[in-house]
Amino acid sequence: MSIFADLLQGFATVLRPEYLLFAAIGVTVGTFVGVLPGIGPALTIALLLPLTFTFDDPIGAFIMFAGIYYGAMYGGSTTSILLNTPGESASVATSIEGYEMARRGRARAALATAAIGSFVAGTISTVLLTFVAEPVASWAVKFRAADYFALAILAMVAVTALVGRSLVRGLLSLTFGLFLGLIGLDSLTGQARFTFGVPELLDGVDIVIVIVGLFAIGETLYVASRLGRLPEHITPLEPARGRTGWLSREDWRRSRGPWLRGTALGFPFGALPAGGAEIPTFLSYTWEKHRSKYRHEFGRGAIEGVAGPEAANNASFSGVLVPLLTLGIPTSATAAVLLAAFQIFNLQPGPQLFENSPELVWALIASLYIGNLMLLVLNLPLIRIWVKVLQIPRPVLYAGILVFATLGVYAVSGNVVEVLIAYAIGVVGFFMRRYDFPISPVILGVILGPMMEEQFRRALIISDGDV
Amino acid sequence: MTTDQGAGEVPPGTAPGAVPEPSYLGPRVVGGVLLASGLFLLYEAVTAAGDDGFALDGPWWAPLAVTAGWTILAAIYLVRVIVVPARDYPPDLDPDVGVDGEAGVEGEAGAPGHAHWRTPGLVLGLLVLYALLYDPLGFVLATVAFFVGAARVLGSHHLVRDVLAGAGLALAAYLAFTRLLDVNLPAGVLPL
């Protein structure tokens, strides 16, 4: 089957010492940054994006990103379990049971089930991606501009409706994102929109700036406003118990099913234009709770409540890659940053990518397998070290986050005005958190809005104004 | 930004142990700001189009649609928050989200309402200062100064530790990004 041939070719491209080194670096750096509370995978990749400016070769950069992403996801689980501060909404479900397990001295088991579950889910879902990617791409080539437009609308409506408590606030977030996307020169006519005479706005507001502003700056400002209420201490790991390793036999038994079920939920939801990772993690939690013989343990540290959501979270990442690679549509904040990364290397994900640079796509998929494995191998033994990172006192930690956020924006844009714009967006992000406005629709609006508008107007021009 | 009067303060004459009415001033101000900015942007969108009109294949209908939508949604939000605020911000919500006026926190040291705004405000001020000093002072010096200041504002009491940590971080980051990654960072005053 030609799929295997392509995949083997991908492995051949990727299994070179320097690429393996990049993967290892990526996983390590990703975990380190992901462990920092409040910094989720999307922001991690955004902050580390400048690292790749010196890469000539996109393969190396993407391998590092894959490692960073897996590492950041795992780091996010670590803070959810140990500190009850999920780095992003997809880790919230993990923190419910994970933190309770940690409080009862079962932190090692929680961390281990998260790591192994992520590995299992990652492997299975990458296999699914391997088989699904090419057929979907060849189907997607037949898409016309009008179809892209409809798909993008579906994505925006679904995410906005399903995220957050209030439709009005979700729509307002989406509208804010659409507005940000409109700033700058119109791509079809070159007219300046909403630039208010500020020359730096002519290029529009870069997605990295939006992400850094909304997540790093916004989150830090929000934390600053709640300092009295946050836990200062980190739950200590219990001393190593005998030679049975991290999970007892019963833990394994209870985790196996949730790992598989979580994967089954995560992958399709990740692939859907509505999906992303939040919904499957919560669905997984609810499903495990309903079907578990140990239902009474939920809320007090049931291991299924960690195993399922973590698997779902990881599987949805591979799922998210399906629309990203085949259609060029990002369905999550992280996918949006990956899309930005592709564009920096002058690659446009979509059906053309499969036709023009198939070796790149297969190399990326192969590097996912490798990153996944590397994550397990590197991180289980290193849990103790990662936990030390959490012992950095909060004021120092958040000051450091702000330094890196500023550095990241400056590195991407080269000027201070953009940094100030990021801060302004951060202030908006602070108020959004304070008054319960969901954040994901903003990202969707910024990415999909301009794309939709362009497709719509193109379709009109092509059909000569016939709506 | 505005400070919320009445946040966390029990009005005189309330029976002890009674839960104070949450103040919905915050969301109302937010609604007002949203509506005002929506109207402003709508005006911008209309006047920017000028004589070109709003043809569907032209550049001006999208700004009009987005700003009109913004204004309408903001109006809906504002009306809801004035007339039926408890629907959008039910009392069982996390006290850090939504409204001020947490029930029964009289025992807490310091006025909880004000901590909401002072610290982030200070952090924001420091950030702006940091950005403005980036080019003239250079990355390293500006970062050390900001780091120490921000850590202090966020609650740190160990000045020496912060200065050392800040200097270490700034130098390491500067060298890593400029030498290893070829990113341009301002050297400013230091001979780097």
Characterise the protein shown here:
- The complex is a heterodimer of chains A (467) and B (192).
- Chain A is an all-alpha fold and 467 residues long.
- In chain A, 72% of the residues lie in helices and 1% in strands.
- Chain A has helices spanning 2-14, 17-35, 41-48, 58-83, 92-103, 107-140, 145-162, 167-182, 207-225, 249-271, 278-291, 304-327, 333-344, 351-356, 358-389, 394-413, 416-434, 440-462, and strands spanning 184-185, 192-193.
- In chain A, helix 1 packs across helix 15, helix 7 (145-162) crosses helix 8 (167-182) and helix 16 (394-413) crosses helix 17.
- The longest helix of chain A has 34 residues, at 107-140.
- Chain A is globular.
- By secondary structure, chain B is mainly α.
- Chain B has six helices and no strands.
- Chain B is flat, with a radius of gyration of 24 Å.
- Residues 1-11 and 101-113 of chain B have low confidence and may be disordered.
- Chains A and B meet through helix 8, helix 9, helix 16, helix 17 and helix 18 of A and helix 1, helix 2, helix 4, helix 5 and helix 6 of B.
